[in-house]
Design a protein that fits this description.
By secondary structure, the chain is of the alpha/beta class. It contains eleven helices and 14 strands.
Length: 374
């Protein structure tokens, strides 16, 4: 006969399930966080839910509705939720109140919400209503799913996802900028899925000039990310795809105080938002734009190159997640272009430490996903 699970193990297993289902909201809920919720009565899971779309019901409410649709008795149940239930009125009502009204007995929370409008107030409201609250269960794993939201809330900056395709010897283009194609069609299809879940796609001026990209997500289910070009001189061509489609897809050109004003005016008249930074230093200017982007609700920012732009983000320590596609090619050449340019460290100890999260073979390509260690 199987032994009953200990209380700590039971809490951990149910929270792990809540974390797993929270990921289903990725790309749909931002700038809100991805949140999962599991409701347990005794030893039985009676309801599950996750935040499915921005502006719609939160995870707790969806889990309650799921339990009721199953005909389950919610009163006296234990609720596992990956983020502290909200206590304020936004686009939806307070989730803490929904749990109180459902007469649950206990709420288990993985991560306290750093949002000043919540920040412990949800837990306080539940406890004042006589509900037992346990916090800090599977916090580290829950924070992985909440990382983009937590960064934007705590720092006012977006979660930066760097993406590049490179040869086996670490080159992203020839010395003249030719890069099509290093990776195969399966890799490029996956890139489209990544694009479809972010709020913005950013490239540098050289990438915009050499590749003339559309920077769109081609899936019908995808959101429409804002396209961003970092171009200090405002040299974006009027006939480029980014400019000629700017009235159809939101597009921003980030430029410097000393940009070509005549060209910028024409670009603006074509429908591109021209954002002029006050800082002469490109890194400071980039950081200021990222704060503006986050203030507008931008949570996930995908950066697709080139090396100069990624080098600036690396110097700022603002690359949070990396998606690398290695194509089965060797390019060679001292002057071939590498993914991240900038200063040349003398010692290996200057390198940023990464954590490998995922590896996948795509025919002869290799896809790897990393996150930067804090």
């Amino acid at each position: 006969m199987a032994q009953p699970l200990s209380a700590p193990l039971k809490d951990a297993l149910h929270m792990q399930r809540a974390i797993a289902i929270a990921w289903q909201g990725q790309g749909f809920v931002e700038p809100n966080p991805m949140v999962g919720c599991v409701i347990v009565q005794g030893n039985d899971v009676i309801g599950e839910g996750w935040h499915q779309k921005f502006g719609q019901a939160h995870a707790e409410v969806n889990a309650i509705q799921n339990a009721r649709s199953n005909g389950a008795q919610i009163e006296g149940a234990t609720v596992y939720v990956t983020l502290e239930p909200c206590s304020h009125h936004g686009k939806t009502g307070p989730c803490a109140d929904a749990l109180i009204d459902a007469k649950v007995t206990r709420v288990v929370v993985a991560v306290l919400d750093p949002n000043p409008e919540v920040s412990g107030a949800g837990v306080k409201r539940l406890r004042e209503a006589g509900i037992e609250v346990t916090t800090g269960i599977e916090t580290s794993e829950a924070e992985n799913s909440l990382a983009p939201y937590l960064k934007r809330t705590r720092t006012g900056l977006p979660w930066v996802i760097a993406k590049w395709a490179m040869t086996v010897d670490g080159k992203i283009a020839t010395m003249h900028g030719d890069s099509q194609w290093i990776s195969n069609e399966h890799s490029r299809e996956l890139v489209q899925k990544i694009r479809g879940r972010v709020d913005g796609i950013m490239v540098g001026a050289k990438t915009a000039l050499n590749d003339d990209p559309s920077l769109t997500a081609r899936s019908k289910k995808s959101r429409t990310p804002t396209r961003i070009v970092v171009d200090s001189k405002a040299g974006l061509r009027l006939v480029s795809k980014l400019v000629t489609t700017a009235t159809e897809v939101p597009t921003i050109m980030v430029t410097s105080p000393t940009h070509n004003q005549k060209q910028a005016k024409k670009i603006g008249e074509a429908g591109v938002e021209v954002w002029v930074g006050e800082h002469a230093d490109p890194c400071e200017r980039l950081l200021a734009f990222m704060k503006t982007f986050a203030d507008r609700g931008g949570t996930n920012l995908l950066v697709e190159g080139g090396g100069t732009l990624l080098g600036s983000l690396h110097r700022l320590k603002q690359i949070d997640e990396i998606h690398v596609f290695i194509g089965p090619k060797i390019l060679g050449g001292r002057n071939s272009i590498t993914p991240v340019e900038g200063e040349n460290p003398i010692l290996m100890e200057a390198a940023d430490e990464l954590s490998l999260r995922f590896v996948r073979r795509l025919d002869d390509d290799v896809y790897m996903q990393y996150r930067r260690k804090n």
